[in-house]
């Protein structure tokens, strides 16, 4: 796994309530299109449960959360269309992704893909479309792979 070890950069993380906190990028794995950002939790901050070791099944519910087109806190639902789908990452590495028909548009990248129990099964990363619209299929990096980073 090629990672960008020693890569640290300060960033601002905007939370769902609109507030911002300081964060530090601890590392990035460009081969898998994943970065790790550390923040100090705020009081009563909810933490998403991860579905580690629980590979999603084709046909199961998939819910994409994000802020497409600047529309905060948007949720779309679909199904898991495929698992371990080989997809090129931004640097042309092939990553085994979760494929979904839940709408993943510009602004959903980096948001969670969750199962019906609300556990994170992946990180939304890209859409494949011929029209440029959400007339295509979405892909998410599996949470087990992201967790390794």
Keywords:
149 residues, mainly beta, six-stranded antiparallel beta barrel, three-stranded antiparallel sheet, globular
What this model shows, in words?
This protein is mostly beta strands and 149 residues long. The chain contains 1 helix and 9 strands. The protein has a 6-stranded antiparallel barrel. A 3-stranded antiparallel β-sheet has the order 1-2-3, with no helix packed on it. It starts with 8 loop residues before the first strand and ends with a helix. The mean pLDDT is 84.
Q: TL;DR of this structure?
A:
It contains one helix and nine strands; from the N terminus they run βββββββββα. By secondary structure, it is mostly beta strands. The protein starts with 8 loop residues before the first strand and ends with a helix.
């Amino acid at each position: 796994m090629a990672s960008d070890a020693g890569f640290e950069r300060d960033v601002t993380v905007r939370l769902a309530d609109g507030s911002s906190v300081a964060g530090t990028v601890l590392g990035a794995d460009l081969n898998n299109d994943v970065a790790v950002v550390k923040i100090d939790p705020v009081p009563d901050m909810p933490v998403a449960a991860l579905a580690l070791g629980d590979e999603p099944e084709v046909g199961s519910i998939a819910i994409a959360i994000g802020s497409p087109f600047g529309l905060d806190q948007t949720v779309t639902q679909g199904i898991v269309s495929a698992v371990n789908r080989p997809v090129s990452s931004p640097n042309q590495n092939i990553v085994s992704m979760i494929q979904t028909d839940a709408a993943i548009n510009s602004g959903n990248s980096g948001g969670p893909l969750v199962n019906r129990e609300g556990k994170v099964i992946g990180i939304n990363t890209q859409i494949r479309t011929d029209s440029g619209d959400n007339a295509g299929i979405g892909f998410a990096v599996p949470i087990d792979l992201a967790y390794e980073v």
